[in-house]
Every structure is written in structure tokens, then in C-alpha cells.
Amino acid sequence: MSHEDALSQTDTRRPAPVEKPVALTVAGSDSGGGAGVQADLKTIEAHDVFGTSAVTAVTAQHTRGVESTHILPAAEVAAQIDAVADDFDVRAAKTGMLATAEIVDRVAGRAADAEFPVVVDPVMVATSGDRLLDAAAEERYEDLIAEAALVTPNADEAAVLTDVTVEGRESAIAAGEALLAMGADAALVTGGHLSDRSEGQAGTVEDVLVTPDGTRTLERPRVETAATHGSGCTLSAAVAARLARGESLPEAVETGAAFVARAVRYHLDVGEGPGAVHHAVGIRDRAAREPTAEAVREVVRAFVERDASALVPEVGMNVVGATPYAEETGDTAAVEGRITRTLSGVKPNRGVRFGASSHVARFLLSCREFDPDLRFAANCRFDADVADALDSLDWSVAEYDRGAEPEGVKAQEGSTMQWGARRAFESVAGTPVAVVDRGEVGKESMTKVVASDADELAERVLTLLSAM
């Protein structure tokens, strides 16, 4: 018998338990997995929190709609809450579909006794506009709201609760203040259900957080997709999970809203309906960060080995890689200090880190609005020699002229790259390989090369170098 076999028969591995905060969801089950308890538990786990549940109703549904609903007795709902609270150190809870007045009463009573914050998602109105509760249950919600650390109604739900028609920021504030008057510690009136008739900018979603300390508006671009089923559940679950981790309410709301925005933008194409919110998108994004950074390092090594100094602009070259779910420059890896020319070739000034690029990263993120498969970009020199080389290649080349940039765009910080990308993509069919920025006074002319993967980017830049 080998030494290893002897050890396997006589020794056992020592357990290494992991401690996590615990959160509770009290909501209905969604067999389609996009909303309700299933969405809540996936979201809670995505925030590194242990999820527990009390099911209020069982629904037979999918991405196209609800087939049937079976409501559990209120006593069974209360028994589930009591069982969880008796055994687990619950740090935060959230409520979703409560179905009946009796369940609302039972949950409100448990919330009043709870020593942890409760986030109330008042699931009252379906996306279709249909009311999900009878009048008696809606009236009972005032008792639950009075126990809420945060209540998160959409525009329709806020109108039911407060009789305030929410059409934009000012009316959302009025509804939020009415909810605080009912006893809630804070209210987040979400703007995803508002149309472009709202007081906000067209194409912008505004969530309004109202607290006794003041009002804050969270703005984000509207994502043109119908795959938003369960986004309200996901938001309230994300906030509850962050509260369980010890974040302050404003921090939890901000991180929760950002999480949902990414989950909706990069939704899952499942089912025959619009699809599902991507509850694991944050985990997948974090997992992609180091491979993305290493891919950028490989491209930089290729440029150093081939001596790409002929393509390095006066301001330096950068190589940028975006994670598959990138939303902002902090989700892009780039060379800190850029790549510069030396007497013996080119050299990166420092290492690769996330958030190291501003100019090229913003351009790449703007290009992803037109082609989400684009993940890598590099800025190269542009002059007559580069222009001749581009003409010799069988590439789709777009360009934009900063001289045509509207003054209103110039006045907005960071808007030039978005404007330039739009002009470039509108000028060619499909996705260009390179985009020429003609520059202006004080702004060097550039050639930006884009690609869907790192190898493709390196090959395209080195092909351009060879063509010179």
C-alpha cells in the first residue's frame, strides 16, 4: 500500500466552514425563475449573502406570462418566517408578492418585531397594468410600510399607495414623501415604468430616493429591452443583501441599482418570451476581470516584441480590454501611463490595471453600444503614412471630424467619444475595423483599432504596422 493510500484510509479532511450574513425573502415562487423567490435567492447569493425564504404563493409562469397561481395559507407563511428567524441570524429581509390581506397582516406583524431592516417591494400592479391585490390587501399595506426601512414602488405602485400620479422627478418626490409620512424610513420610487412623457430626459431612467435627510436621483440610460420581468424583485433583493452585509441605506440603494442596470442590459436570452434578468452578471463580470487584464498584457507584449513605435502617437498608445459585461471605464483594463516610444522600441510605462484609461476606454464602451461583441481597442498614430496603409488594406474604415462636433456635446464631460463612435458607425455598414479621429487644435489625430478579442486586436494593429 502506498503512503498516499494509507493517508486516504486513515485521515479525513478538516472542515473549513464559511461565515456569511443571512437575508430573508418573503415572496411568491416563479417557476420561470425570472422573478419572485427564485430571482431573490439568486440575487442574494450573487452578493455573497446566504438566502432564506418564506413562500407566499406558487405560480405557474414562464417568460410569456402567468398560467396559474396557488396562494398559501397565511399561517404557513408565518410559520416559514418563524422557522427561519428561530434558527438563523437574519441581518435583513425583503418582501415581494404577499397576495392577500391576511398575509400582509402576518408579515407586517413579523416586521414590527424584527431587529433587522425590512425592504418592502409592494408587488401590486403587473407589467400589463393588472392589479395583483384586492382593495383590502392594498389598504393593509400601510401597516407594513410603517415598518419598512425602505419601500421600493414603481410608478404604478406608488400611485396606488399614495394617490400621487408619478410622471417624473417632482411627482416621484411627492410620492416618496407621502410614503415617509406613512412611517417608512425611506422610499425609492423607481422610474423604469415611466415613458418618455416623464419630466426626465428621453432615454433616461430616474430612480428617486427620498429620506428624512433629503432626496437623491439616480440616473442611468434606458435599456431598450422588454426583458425586465423581475427587475423590481432583483432590486429589492440586492438592496436587502447589501444591508445584510452592513452597508448604509444610500450605499445599498446605489449598488443595488447599478447591479440591476447591468443585469437588465446583459439579460439572458432564455424562453420564448423577452428573456430573463441576468442575476449572476456581477459574478460573471468579476470572474472575467483577470483573464481580460492578462489578454491586454499579451497584446502589449506583442507590440513590444514587434516594435510598434511607428504607430505610437505623441501622447502615447494604450491597449484597452473590456470585460464581457462592462458598463463603465472601471470595467476596462489598460496600461497605466500608456505605451511610449524609447530609443530601443516601445515600452509600457507601468503595469495593467482596471480604470487606467479614460479616452480609449470611453471610446470602446461607446462602440459597444453599437456592437456589444467588441471588447478590445488600441489608439494608434494617424498621418499620411498611416492613411496610405489603411487605403492598402481591405478594411472597413470609418472616421469622424471633431470640427463637426456640436458645442453642446463638447460642453458635456466625456461626451465626445460617444458622439464620435456614433458618427463612425453611422458612416459605414456594419462594424469598422478602424476609426479615424481627425483631431482638432490641441487634439492629436488618431487611428483607433477595435476588435472582439485580444488576438484579433494584436493581429490588426500589427497588420497595419506591416502595411506601412
Automatic annotation (TrEMBL):
Enzyme class: transferase
Residue stretches making up the Thiamine-phosphate synthase ThiN domain: 296-462
GO CC list: cytosol
Chain spans, region Disordered: 1-20
One GO molecular-function entry: phosphomethylpyrimidine kinase activity
Keyword Hydrolase found: no
Entry annotated with the keyword 4Fe-4S: no
Keywords: ATP-binding, Kinase, Nucleotide-binding, Transferase
CDD domains: HMPP_kinase
Protein name listed in UniProt: Bifunctional hydroxymethylpyrimidine kinase/phosphomethylpyrimidine kinase
Organism of derivation: Halorussus gelatinilyticus
